[in-house]
Amino acid sequence: EFFFFFFFFFFDLLFDLTPNNLTMVQKGKQLTKKKIKIKAKRCRSPEPEEEVEQHPDAQWADPNDVEFEQEIASEDENTGGSTKKSTRQTKTGQFFRPRPGENLQVNYKAYEMRHLLAVQWPSLSFDVLLDPDEYGRTKHPLECCIVSGTQAEKMVSNSLLIKKVTKMYKTDKDKEVESDDDSDSESSTDSDEDEEEDENADVDPSVFNKEFPYHGTINRVRAMAQLPGVVAVWGEHEGVKAFDLRDHYKDLYEPTFDTLFGSTYDALVPILESKKAHASEGFALEWSPRLLGWLATGDVDGKLYVWQKPESGSYTNIPLKGHTRSVEDIQWSPSQDNVLASCSMDTTVRLWDFRDPKSPCKLWWNADAVDINVISWNMQQNARHLLASGGDSGVFKVWDLRMIKPQEATPIAEFAFHQEPINSLEWAPGSECVLAVASDTMVLIWDLSVEADEEEKTQRRSKSKAEKVPPQMMFAHQGVKNVKEIHWHPQIPGMLMLTDEEGFQFFKPTNWQSILS
Fold first, then answer.
1. pTM here?
2. What is the C-alpha separation between 130 and 134, in angstroms, rounded?
3. Rounded to an integer, what distance in angstroms lies between the CA atom of residue 34 and that of residue 32?
4. What is the C-alpha R_g of the chain?
5. Going by C-beta distance under 8 Å and a sequence separation of 6 or more, which residues neighbour residue 366?
6. Alpha carbon of 141 to those of 189, 202, 204: distances in Å?
7. What is the predicted pLDDT for the residue at 380?
8. What are phi and psi of 509, to 5 degrees?
9. What does the alpha-carbon distance between residue 222 and residue 284 come to, in Å, rounded to a whole number?
10. Which is it for strands 295-299 and 348-353: parallel, antiparallel or unpaired?
11. Is 241 helix (H, G, I), strand (E, B) or coil?
C-alpha cells in the first residue's frame, strides 16, 4: 500500500510541476489563403502580451455607468524603441480596433475561464472528441479531448494528435485588474467547492498526448460523433484518409505507462482512402450526423464526393458535380439523411440530394461576390431552416432555406462588423440564435434574436471615434493571431475553443449563461 501511494503521489506531483509541454511554441508569421507559413524560430508563449478582450455585456458590468480602461503600449520612435503607455477609455457598448503597434491588455474579468495551450507546431484544424462524462457539466476543473493535425516546417515533422486537456480551473479575475472598492463582496455562504475553485484559479492545465506521424500538412480533421475516436483527415499530400483511433482514445481515460509519459506511435492504417477520387488537395470534410460512417469530401478542383460504407467491402463514393472552383466547406442536413450543403470559391452555396445521381444539385444561390469560406447549419429542432455563411468579404449572413428561390436569395441577417475574412463560424449547441464567428484577429459571439431599439439606432448613427457595438454582439475575444477554426464544446455549455498560429485557446465568457439563456 505504501508503494502504490508513493507511485501515484510522485506522478501527480510530476504533472503539476511540468504541465506537459506548455512552454514552447513554433510561431507562424504569414498567412496565405488557407495556410500558415512557418518560420523556424522558437519563442516562449504561454502568456501572450498582445491581447485584449472587450466585453460589452458582462455580468460584472453595469451598462449604464461602468467604464473600463484599455491600456495601450506603443513604440516611441523618438526614444529609440522604448515604450510609452497611454490609455483609451472604453465605455460599455463601444468597440476599439487595435491600431498598429498597440499592445492591448487582457480584461480577465470578462472570463469565467481562459487557458492558452502552446504547441510545437500550429494546427489548421481540430475537432472535439465526445468524452464519457455527462453533458451540461459546468463544475470546475473542466476537461475535454480534441483531435488535431499539424502544419510543421518540414513535411516529415507533421503528426495527427489526440489531446486530453485536464485541470481547467476558473481564471483569476484579479490577475490584471484589481476589484473596485464598491464591488459586491463574495457571499459568506459560498460552498467549499467554490472556495477550492478560487484557490486553484488560473492553475495551468495538464495535457496528455497521443501522437501519430503523418506525411505532410493536415488541412482539416473531423471526428465522428457516433463513434468517438474515428476520425477523418484531409492531408495536403495524402488526400482523404479515415482512421479508427478508438483504442488510443480510450487509453486516455484508462492511462497506461505510455500515456503518462507521452509516446509517438507507428504510422496508422487507414480504414478509408480517397486514392484517385481527389487528384488535388482539399479542405471540405464532414461526417454525417445521421448516417453512421458516411463522409462528404470536397477538393480545390471543385470535386465533391459522398463516401458510403456498405455492410461488406470497402468504401464507395458518389460524385456531386456543380461547383466550378474550390469546395471550401460542407454541412450535412440535421433532418434529412440524403441532403447536404456546400460552399465554394465560386461564390455559391449549393444544396444536394445524392439520391438523384443524375441531377443532385437541387438549389443554389450566390451568397456573396467573393469566396465563401465556411457554412454552419443550425441543428436545433425549430431552427433547422437556418444556414449561416461567411466569406472573404468579412461579412457573415444567415439564410432561411424556406425562403430561397432557385439562383436567388436574400439573407434574413447580414453583418459586416469583422472587416476581415471570416475563417470559421458555428451555431452554439442547444441554441436557435447564438452564433460564434471568427476572423483573423477576433472571435465574436452573436445573438441574432436581439433587435435594436430606436435609441440604439440613433446612437450608432452619431459621430464617434469608437465604434458602437451592435446590440446582437454579446462578447468579443480579441488578440488572437490568424484564427483558423473555432468550436463550441457540445458537452460543456458556454465553452469555446480555437486554434491560431500560436496554439489553442479554451475560454468561457463571464456572461455565458445570459448569452445562452
1. 0.80
2. 10
3. 6
4. 23
5. 347, 348, 407, 409
6. 21, 11, 11
7. 95
8. -65, 150
9. 10
10. unpaired
11. strand
- Read off the pLDDT of each residue in 38-49 and give the average, rounded to a whole number: 32
CA-CA distance, 472 to 225, in Å (whole number)?
30
Q: How far apart are CA 475 and CA 509, in angstroms?
A: 7
**Cα 289 from Cα 309, distance rounded (Å):** 15
The distance of Cα 501 from the centroid of its chain, to the nearest Å, equals 13
Beta strands in 224-303 (DSSP E): 230-235, 239-244, 263-264, 272-273, 282-287, 295-299
Is residue 73 pLDDT above 80, yes or no? no
Q: Which residue has the cell 470546475?
A: 140
* pLDDT tens figures, 439-492: 999 999 999 999 866 555 555 444 455 567 899 999 999 989 999 999 999 999
Q: Report whether pLDDT(304) > 60.
A: yes
Average confidence score pLDDT of the chain: 79
Alpha carbons 337 and 343: distance in angstroms, whole number:
19
Give the number of residues written for the chain. Answer: 517
Sheet of strand 386-391: strand arrangement: 372-377, 386-391, 396-400, 413-415
Does the pLDDT at position 498 exceed 60? yes
* 113 closest CA partner among 169, 59, 58: 169
pLDDT in tens, 352-364: 999 998 999 999 9
Specify the residue for cell string 434574436. 449
Question: Are the CB atoms for 465 and 450 separated by under 8 Å?
Answer: no
Chain centroid to Cα 284, Å, comes to 16
